[in-house]
Amino acid sequence: MKQFKAFVRKEFYHILRDRRTLIILLGMPVVQILIFGFALSNEVGNARFVVLDPAQDPATTQIITQLDASRYFDYAGSCRTYREIEERFRREGIKLAVVFPPSFNQELQHLHTAQIQLVTDASDPNTATTLSNYASAVINDYQARTNAVAPLPYTILPVTRMLYNPQLKAAYNFVPGVMAMVLMLVCTMMTAITIVKEKETGTMEVMLVSPVQPLKIVLAKAVPYLLLSLVNVVTILLLSVYALEVPVRGSIPLLLLESGLFIVASLSIGLLISTATGSQQTAMFLSLLGMFLPTVLLSGFMFPIENMPWLLQQVSHIVPAKWFYQVVQSIMIKGKGLDGIWKETGILLGMTVVFLLLSIKNFKIRLA
Amino acid sequence: MKMITAKNLSKVFGGFKAVDAISFEVEPGEIFGFLGANGAGKTTAMRMLCGLSRPSSGEATVAGFDVYRQQEQIKRAIGYMSQKFSLYDDLTITENIRFYAGIYGKPGRFIKEKTSALLRELHLETEADKRVGSLPLGWKQKLAFSVAIFHEPQLVFLDEPTGGVDPITRREFWNLIYAAAEKGITVFVTTHYMDEAEYCNRVSIMVDGRIEALDTPAGLKQHYSAASMNDVFLQLARKATRSAD
Predict the structure, then answer these.
(1) Regarding the domain with residue range A47-149, which homologous superfamily does it belong to in the CATH classification?
(2) Which of A203, A212, A279 is best to mutate for the B interface (most B CBs within 10 A)?
(3) Which residues of chain A have pLDDT under 70?
């Protein structure tokens, strides 16, 4: 125990002395949450739209007013021709054009159905999709309200209800993603680097000659990063609740426990990498390419897994971050309890055990 | 009791005999020089004795313990300083001492008293709270040696401890080695510097994984009718067929 304490104290010295790294490690989640939350969001606010409205009847006017009133859109005037719409798209960076047919109101009254064309700038497909979704939602909303008071319903359109994220808030998606990313970086990369660093400087050899058990060396390395990661988890949760207004619907202790599990998994991957490499650069490279990239690309938080080719979908199953992402999403956004996420938790647990056993076995082989 | 005994100790990597059936003994309190060209197998042999590497065949005991079965006891009985640096640059002198003494499980009071005695001895009292990274190389090496024997081992292994320092600092370093030997610590040292070989009680010279010669420096010079250890070494090393790694 005395040996272990000496070790842990030393690890804390290393981390606290290296101010720059410490600032990066603690600041990273803050910066990422802020970047994803405010700068990189594919949520759109105040997108300017134009209208081609030959009819100019009460129905079209109401729809336009309602669009303008929503916080996503700003009315930027009307056009008389398609050509004019195109010009304004190019010149002014208009994001959306709403085109009504010449006899909108009559069609509604007599045929009980009418069409509205939504034109978006699809050179940025994500924004375009989001905008047309928002606009449709506003129009549907208008229709629902009119139908409620009208003697005869005009038409019945399928209403898409967006579960869990009715406002299509992007923050709901990336908070769990940022959590997975930050934990992966801190635990996997930093553990791998610090252990390999001791190999490089020769201090590892001295320790292996000493009576300390190798397992203690490794555990002592993990303790400070475990604490650091928990601090990061709490930071992310506080920021997302208070700055981004993403609620935590499920149990917070459960969320922390699951994070703890993912942290241990990441630490053991870091350890595994450190046993397989001899230089800090290789360790960093392996952690970035082998763990960080899959976390970003294949966990489902940036790109939906369902849209990937079959092969990539299969690969995504072995990315621990994917399961953790789903767990956090379920607890935070959907408010599920352990009974709703036992499968994901089981898979994470299994992966952790495998990585831990592999790395400890590998660590021992290296000593022989 | 002999401090080290080795009998036909070998280490084979694949088909390559890094250490080829070496046999020798080291007496308690002796300063034993372990010489050889690069790639002759010194480091491999030393690693087997320290418990860092398992011998392929042969027998060996260190401080009376068997290298196959009693590695834990061996680890408690020895100190070790490698050619690569073994102190932490971002820790202060005191913290380094405390850490290494801590991993040998020494009690707090022992560490405290011995640390101040050591700092006085090395004239480092004023530097105690400075980070090791800011010290000159020669000081670091002296400190690393003192740390390696801080837990009062019976035997200390030094792997090319004086690489890269000037002759004056090397001389000072050897004074520390003599002081340790006087306290009864056996010193097992590998070196490239032939003037250092002259400071040893006995030296062995390894060529291509085998011990080609083992005697006192005076004995070796007489046997090979050489003026210095340098000449002895050159005569033996020329026989090597293996190239340095």
Answers:
(1) abc type-2 transporter like domain (3.40.1710.10)
(2) A203
(3) 39-45, 122-126, 148-172, 364-368
- B144 vs B158: CA distance, rounded Å: 10
Cβ proximity of A176 and A296 under 8 Å:
no
| Contact in structure between A262 and A226 (CB atoms under 8 Å) | no
The domain B4-84+153-237 is placed in CATH, from the list 1.10.540.10, 2.130.10.120, 3.40.50.1470, 3.40.50.300, at 3.40.50.300
Contact A368 B54 (CB under 8 A): yes
Instruction: Indicate if the alpha-carbon torsion angle A337, A343, A346, A347 is positive or negative.
Output: negative
User: Does B44 lie at the interface with A, CB-CB under 8 angstroms?
Assistant: no
pLDDT reported for residue A42? 56
Task: Tell me the pLDDT tens digit for each residue of B151-192.
Answer: 999 999 999 888 878 888 889 999 999 999 999 999 999 988
Across the interface, whether the CB atoms of B99 and A10 are under 8 A apart is answered yes
Would the pTM count as exceeding 0.80?
no
In angstroms and rounded to an integer, the radius of gyration of the C-alpha atoms of chain A is: 27
CB contact under 8 A, A211 and B82: no
CB contact under 8 A, B103 and A7: yes
Model ipTM value = 0.84
Tell me the chain A residues in contact with residue B100 when contact means C-beta distances shorter than 8 Å: 206, 210
Stretch B47-57: mean pLDDT, rounded? Answer: 90
| pLDDT given at position A40 | 59
